[in-house]
Design a protein that fits this description.
About 40% of the residues lie in helices and about 15% in strands. α2 crosses α11 and α5 crosses α11.
Length: about 325
């Protein structure tokens, strides 16, 4: 197989296992490119990509922008805070105005679940979902799984992955679960009962509320921050209590028979879900995730652009 089965990246749920392996294989090639002295390739020359961020973002937006520029695309950056959205302009109006400027691809982050899917049905451009509310964040899941594969130095089929923290409000958790299950990994979620969705067991996901048991079980621990900005009521008594029960420290790791690979999608609340000592330790692959994020996003942009070109010439 040499092309994706989809014309947009709206969520991991829409991808086949073959799609994921193709993205990983392509990312490996781009990882070599970004480690060369000359980091640019002309793959997306004459392609215009619009980055539409209706929610604040630093890492994801920068990662996409670097990926686009490494591929020689023309890049248009749009921030809702400085736009006519503040004046009441609709999503469709905003995008149609940008498409009138002949944009080929749109990378979008939006606070409403399903926004990217809605857009894909109304505009003639390839859409990449960079996060839609608490729904999905597909490129984060892809880079996480790609990073796990690299750290474990093997296929992640059969690997035990614990996702620890605020599962309820996390789009990263859902995309990770879909991606890891498609690749044959075992998935466990861990956190306060109030932050674990009730439907997790129905998805074939193990549930644990004791972080020490989850860490002892796991080959990989993917730590998630508590998303206070999405909470409209208290989900645990105090932050101090959360840190006591769920914060990962070196003492906690050193008490384990085997220390799992430590990951975090960022931003890290140092001293809350993990200490600085853990984040910066030999067990952590957080910086490798950042590097892999550029390679994965280059792969997704390249493959979707190739699919778009193929559809036009067919």
């Amino acid at each position: 197989m040499s092309d994706l089965s989809v014309s947009h990246l709206l969520g991991i749920k829409n991808l086949t296992t073959e799609d994921i392996h193709l993205i990983f294989k392509t990312a490996e090639q781009f990882k070599e490119v970004i480690n060369r002295p000359i980091k640019k390739v002309p793959s997306l020359r004459d392609i215009t990509v619009a980055n539409l961020f209706f929610e604040n973002s630093t890492r994801t937006r920068l990662s996409f922008e670097i990926a686009e520029k490494r591929l020689s695309a023309d890049v248009v950056n749009f921030s809702a805070a400085q736009s006519s959205v503040k004046k009441g302009e609709t999503l469709i109006d905003t995008v149609n105005n940008i498409l009138a400027m002949k944009v080929d691809m749109v990378v979008m982050r939006h606070s409403h679940p399903g926004a990217a899917h809605f857009l894909s049905q109304h505009v003639d451009a390839s859409i990449i979902n960079a996060g839609d509310g608490a729904h999905e964040h597909p490129t984060q899941a892809l880079l996480d799984a790609f990073s796990m594969q690299s750290a474990l130095q093997s296929d992640i089929k059969g690997a035990k992955v614990a996702i620890i923290g605020d599962i309820l409000h996390s789009r990263v958790a859902l995309s990770n679960i879909f991606c890891l299950q498609k690749l044959g990994a075992e998935v466990m979620v861990c956190g306060p009962q109030t932050l674990i969705p009730k439907h997790m067991p129905e998805m074939g996901v193990l549930v644990e509320t004791n972080v020490d048991k989850a860490l002892a079980w796991a080959d990989v621990a993917n730590m998630l921050r508590v998303q206070h900005e999405r909470m409209n009521l208290p989900y645990f008594p105090t932050l101090r209590e959360y840190v006591t029960h769920y914060g990962v420290t070196m003492e906690r790791l050193e008490a384990l028979p085997k220390v799992p690979v430590i990951m975090h999608p960022g931003p890290i609340n140092r001293g809350v879900e993990i200490t600085s000592e853990v984040a910066d330790s030999k067990h952590s692959i957080i910086l490798q995730q950042v590097e892999n994020g550029v390679a994965i996003r280059m792969a997704v942009l390249y493959l979707l652009a190739a699919k778009r070109t193929m559809n036009f010439t067919a």
